[in-house]
Amino acid sequence: DAGITQSPRYKITETGRQVTLMCHQTWSHSYMFWYRQDLGHGLRLIYYSAAADITDKGEVPDGYVVSRSKTENFPLTLESATRSQTSVYFCASSGTGNEQFFGPGTRLTVL
Amino acid sequence: GQNIDQPTEMTATEGAIVQINCTYQTSGFNGLFWYQQHAGEAPTFLSYNVLDGLEEKGRFSSFLSRSKGYSYLLLKELQMKDSASYLCAVRDLKDYKLSFGAGTTVTVRA
Question: Rounded distance, CA B81 to CA A52, Å?
């Protein structure tokens, strides 16, 4: 299906485990973004990418790693999950740098 | 960096008009965006302003004053389905990052 998808949609993990959240878009958009959304904070940018093999830190990058070997994929890895990383994670893409299209989100709980 | 402020909550009656204000302080401005987010769903794009003035799109309008660091989103003829969170976001001059405000939750009552 065309669009932007995220997997898994829901994930429960334990402190210290490594977790990878997947993001896939079919539009060949150059720009891709990872946000986390927490009550009272709104959306905060974790990492972003302007093209394949180009990534940069956002506002809250600590504890996260990204890669972008292919234009359509932008996985986000939590190297050693902590309770403070319990959140809803949104991936987004943009072709022009203007409108961003958001995926459905992944709800992550770290116990 | 960006500092973006918007009210936390607003309540209005079906059929009425609501104006959501957004003020921002930025080191470099390259556009202001409004997104709508229903509970449990992803944000969806509503409007984009880069020049001063009013942009109208159906029942929704967005206004920008760059000199005042101010924008508003105007929702007319409110419907129950407009109950949602409305996010103001500012794009940085250097790159394509967006900084979001915390969002305004609008509740439409019958």
Answer: 38
